[in-house]
UniProtKB/TrEMBL annotation:
The keyword Ribonucleoprotein does not apply. Residues 1-27 form the signal peptide. InterPro entries: Peripla_BP_I (IPR028082), SBP_2_dom (IPR025997). Residues 26-83 are annotated as: Disordered. Gene3D superfamilies: 3.40.50.2300. Pfam families: Peripla_BP_4. Keywords: Signal. Residues 60-74 have a biased composition (Polar residues). Residues 103-362 form the Periplasmic binding protein domain. Belongs to the bacterial solute-binding protein 2 family. This is Substrate-binding domain-containing protein.
């Protein structure tokens, strides 16, 4: 896939550094400002800086998929758009001369979301001259992540980027890292008992509530405002998935009162959701639609729907996250659409916030990237926005291009 060259690379051009293979986003169809961080000088050259739209209250679903960010942070914080996380040329040069080291501790690295976020992190760390000394994958195990953090600490990083597998079980390990002077930037969630600006720098997320609203809008429109649907939700106390599921439920209730959620099936194993799909179809063989918390569980649901012989006209499916497999299903019409995160942009913002901490620059406590509506009509453009890469041949073929 051919990478697009974009805004984050302006800073490298200004300091004479070339970074091949990575690029920046374009504005989305809905008019979103580019989510990837620019240098402040570049923004001044282009005109006024990006407008701070802030965070609408969760009960306001009118702008889901647009420029407003509907989510609030783990502690109720108002969101700062990721596009506002900027560095001057002088600050970039200062970071490049600092000899800094970073590490990444993932809760799970085996999906397209993690892969894309890692690409954004690595590209930005390389641009900033920050050495990446470790990348770990806890495979959803809190015990493993605690061990990973101990291993990382032996490499003496200046900053750790992480998403806690369990906000409570990993809290002591992260707190110890903070007490040892390591700067912490979190993805999506923060450990229990930790305070932004004191124990950690910031938390970066997608607009998960907004993405849930997008999935609901797509479902409601596909059903013409009437029908019976089921939910397949992540049955765990995990902040971002709880937000997206709440956004879906509330939007369905507020905007589509004649669509009834007749069943909710919880899961803990994302790879086993054909079982939840089977349960819904057995109990409600005339179900009109099913929502799943993200793309991998939806793959299981979709396999169940296909095995039952039901068509995409009979059962409408919506979800969150533009994984490659679900992208193909949207292009072919098997899935109506989804609310997409922009994980590459999140990775860029996380690395830039790491630089903020190393500079002693004040950072917003919660940073978010707008939700993106994805459906068959814009699948190729949306893929490029999400992955910062041209849509691959297999997706173009599936879309009939």
């Amino acid at each position: 896939m051919k990478r697009k060259i974009g805004s984050v690379l302006l800073s490298m051009a200004m300091i004479g550094v070339l970074l091949g293979g990575c690029g920046g986003p374009q504005a989305s169809e809905e008019g979103n400002a580019p989510a990837e961080a620019q240098t402040e000088d570049a923004q001044e050259d282009a005109g006024a800086p990006a407008e701070d739209t802030g965070a609408a209250p969760p009960e306001n679903t009118a702008s889901a998929g647009g420029t407003d960010i509907l989510s609030t942070g783990p502690n109720g914080e108002k969101a700062t758009p990721a596009s506002e996380i900027t560095l001057t040329d002088e600050e970039i040069e200062q970071i490049r001369n600092g000899g800094y080291k970073a590490a990444i501790s993932l809760h799970y690295g085996g999906n397209d979301w993690a892969t894309s976020q890692l690409e954004g992190l690595k590209a930005t760390f390389e641009m900033l001259g920050i050495e990446l000394v470790a990348t770990t994958d806890a495979d959803f195990s809190a015990e493993q992540q605690v061990s990973d953090i101990e291993t990382i600490m032996a490499k003496n990083p200046d900053v750790i980027i992480s998403i806690p597998t369990d906000a409570t079980a990993t809290a002591d390990a992260f707190q110890k890292a903070a007490q040892d002077g390591v700067k912490l930037v979190f993805m999506d969630n923060v450990p229990a008992g930790m305070t932004a600006g004191e124990d950690y720098v910031s938390c970066v997320s997608a607009d998960n509530y907004g993405n849930g609203c997008v999935a609901a809008d797509l479902m409601g429109e596909a059903l013409g405002g009437k029908g019976k649907i089921g939910m397949v939700y992540y049955d765990a106390d995990f902040f971002v998935t709880n937000q997206r599921d709440d956004g879906f439920r509330k939007t369905m209730a507020d905007k589509f009162p004649d669509i009834e959620i007749v069943t909710e099936q919880g899961f803990t194993d994302e790879n086993g959701c054909a079982e939840q799909g089977d349960a819904i179809l057995t109990q409600y063989p005339m179900i009109n639609g099913i929502y799943a918390s993200w793309d991998v569980p939806m793959e299981g649901v979709l396999s169940s729907v296909k095995a039952s012989g039901l068509t995409s006209e009979e059962v409408k499916l919506t979800t969150i996250d533009l994984g490659n497999n679900i992208a193909k299903e949207i292009a072919q019409g098997s899935v109506v659409g989804l609310g997409a995160q922009l994980p590459y942009d999140q990775g860029v913002a996380e690395a830039m916030l790491a630089a903020y901490s190393l500079l002693g620059k004040e950072a917003p406590t919660y940073v978010a990237v707008s939700a993106k509506r994805v459906e068959q009509s814009n699948i190729l453009e949306a893929y490029e926005d999400v992955y910062h890469a041209e849509a691959p041949d297999w997706l173009q073929k599936a879309a009939g291009k």
